[in-house]
Design brief:
This protein is an alpha/beta fold and 164 residues long. The protein has a single domain, classed as P-loop containing nucleotide triphosphate hydrolases (Rossmann fold). Helices cover 25% and strands 28% of the residues. Helix 3 links the parallel strand 4 and strand 5. Helix 1 crosses helix 2 and helix 1 runs antiparallel to helix 4. The chain starts with a strand and ends in a 9-residue tail after the last helix. The C terminus is likely disordered.
């Protein structure tokens, strides 16, 4: 995994990063989102979903439902593990959904059950900095060189080559 640190990320920058990741998945279907409450995990998901024809206002936190499913150009599973108590409960909730090999899975609080998710994916840790800024640590599989390059461009303040 290649680790990239991006500091002082505004909401506009977060939208750019979500777009870059959405357009450069290159076969990876898991995005693991971790960070304290209020760091922007669900906001990232809203921005990510925009790239697949889903309106941001249709995306909401699955804290109580555990899984929200959004469909348009792709099926996106937005999963929040915060309220789950054990691996059996997790298995029950996700039974059958992980078999959707075309689906994209955005999983908040994946660090609660690290042993469950063995498939490689993109890991994003969000750290609160101020009301409108956060720091990101993004881990990308080494094989996804295009995404790594696009994120480095974004980190360095240059416009990404990736277009929606």
């Amino acid at each position: 995994m290649i680790e990239l640190e991006i500091y002082d990320v505004s909401l506009e920058n977060l939208r750019d990063i979500a777009r870059i990741i959405a357009n450069n998945l290159n076969g990876y279907r898991f995005i693991f989102l971790n960070g304290n409450l209020g760091t922007g995990k669900t906001t990232f998901v809203k921005y990510f979903c925009e790239n697949f024809g889903i309106k941001p206002e249709d995306v909401s936190s699955p804290t109580f439902t555990v899984v929200n499913v959004y469909s348009d150009l792709k099926t996106i599973y937005h999963i929040d593990l915060y309220r789950l108590n054990d691996i059996e409960e997790l298995f029950y909730v996700l039974e059958g959904q992980l078999e959707d090999e075309e689906g994209i899975f955005l999983i908040e609080w994946s660090n609660i059950f690290p042993e469950y998710f063995t498939e490689k994916g993109i890991e994003i840790e969000l750290k609160h900095k101020s009301n409108d800024k956060r720091d990101l640590i993004i881990k990308v599989p080494e094989e996804n060189q295009k995404l790594i390059n696009e994120l480095r461009r974004c980190k360095n303040g240059r416009k990404s080559e990736t277009k929606i």
